[in-house]
Amino acid sequence: MQNFQGKVILITGAAGGIGATTAKLFAERGGKVVLADRDEAGAQRLAHEIGKNALPVAVDVTDAASVEAMVRAAEEEFGGLDVLVNNAGISNPKAKIEETLEANFDRVFDINIKGIYLCTRYAVPALRRRGGGVILNSASVAALVPRKHSAIYAASKGAVVTFTRALSLELAPTIRVNCVCPGTIDTDFMATVFPDGDDLASFRDRLHSSPGHGVPMERLIQTSDVAEAFAFLASDAASSISGIALPIDGARSAGDAS
Ligand SMILES: NC(=O)c1ccc[n+]([C@@H]2O[C@H](COP(=O)([O-])OP(=O)(O)OC[C@H]3O[C@@H](n4cnc5c(N)ncnc54)[C@H](O)[C@@H]3O)[C@@H](O)[C@H]2O)c1
């Protein structure tokens, strides 16, 4: 079992879904967690649940000044930063490319890749002040095996994979950089894929009644599967692992199972 005693872990998008599960897991294993989210009330609720080892911080990852203040808060309150989990992300509504709005393209790329660039840019000096650390990014199985009608989201996550690999070279040997590629998980995120409530409800029905659909392991991926992968990649057990994109998708990206 990992022990994160004495470590400070900053998680963006910590108020919901994968981020909240990840924050709780790092805190249970002894870490101090910075819960950074644009949903300030959600981050505060989770901090209350976790207790004194959690610090809620309001941030918009697309805004440089807000990101800089987030990293400063981690250093001022908890004395430094050891792990950055770039988890905040959104999808674009499923749509044909001719019907995909430019505003949606900008928003998805702003949050999913510019946000990771900004958080990394301001966190790296803080990680260096501790003598090194770990950066973990949320990509997606969509970066490896995209589905139709979500090219913008898939491309943004492809950029996350390449950003991860390039940075692992630049920041070695003191900072490790990895990303995860989760398959479909039932979180609030799905509302950004299916903004129309009816489509969302029928998608959720299909997902839960037939989790094996397209997933050879025949199971629905859980937020805890991703949190456990983040914890492993942040731990000393992964000291030789940098520059990878780890699928957490029940073998969906392994090949064609039909
Ligand atoms: N759920 C899935 O099926 C799935 C699959 C693959 C990858 N992912 C990725 O995992 C990550 C987390 O997804 P989730 O399912 O937990 O989503 P979620 O919607 O449940 O949570 C995302 C969190 O990010 C926050 N956020 C969004 N924009 C922000 C911004 N500009 N600044 C700060 N915070 C912001 C939201 O407030 C929310 O709390 C995302 O990067 C997503 O692309 C999710």
Summary keywords:
single chain, 258 residues, alpha/beta, Rossmann fold, 2 domains, seven-stranded parallel β-sheet, binds nicotinamide-adenine-dinucleotide
Q: What is the name of the CATH architecture of the largest domain? A: 3-Layer(aba) Sandwich
Given helix and strand content, the structural type is alpha/beta
The separation of the N and C termini measures 37 Å
> Count the helices. How many?
8
- Largest sheet descriptor: 7 strands, parallel
Helix amount, in percent?
Answer: 40-55%
- Please, what is the CATH homologous superfamily of the largest domain? NAD(P)-binding Rossmann-like Domain
How many separate structural domains? 2
Principal-axes shape call: globular
Strand residues, percent: 5-15%
The CATH class name of the largest domain reads Alpha Beta
> Could you tell me the radius of gyration in angstroms?
18 Å
CATH topology of the largest domain: Rossmann fold
Q: What are the low-pLDDT stretches, counting only 5+ consecutive residues below 50?
A: none
Give the overall average pLDDT.
96
Q: Could you state the order of secondary-structure elements as H and E?
A: EHEHEHEHEHEHHHE
Count of DSSP strands:
7
Strand order of the largest sheet: 3-2-1-4-5-6-7
User: Which small-molecule species are bound to the chains here?
Assistant: nicotinamide-adenine-dinucleotide
